[in-house]
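Friendly challenge for the regulars: who can give me the structure tokens for this chain first? No prize, just bragging rights.
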Amino acid sequence: MYHRILVPVENSNYDERILDHVRQLARYCGASIVLIHVADGWAARNIQHLNLRESEEMRDDRVYIERLASRLTADGLSAEALLATGDPSAEIAAAAERERCDLIAMSTHGHRFIADLIYGSVANAVRHMTSVPVLLLRAPAGTKQKVAAT
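First reply, four minutes later:
Bragging rights claimed.
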């Protein structure tokens, strides 16, 4: 069914929700998991144009996704971690193709009112940019977005 599942993570409580679901799906299908985090700080957005070094925030992001991948591997799953920079939607869609993933599994937050109307959501943009199937798992009401400790 699925062989490689791309899972965008954002260093928040939403990550555990999607990872709990993907663990079961990956076991059922015998699929590997590719975690991706798209860094979005000033340095991350300008790293290539200005030839900058990785910021402390980006190093923390890398540690975070590598720790998640290690936990998945310790659970008996095949997992790897990617840190990207740029537009999250475009980077996720590009990674799915580049990494030959056949499913993108994302957690969604629900509507953020005006911001979603003006900018749209990452999940919505990804589903329009890719031909890879996208599984959207909505976080339960009351889930707080909070940066997880690294």
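The two ends are 34 Å apart (CA to CA). Residues 27 and 77 are 7 Å apart (CA to CA). Your move, everyone else.
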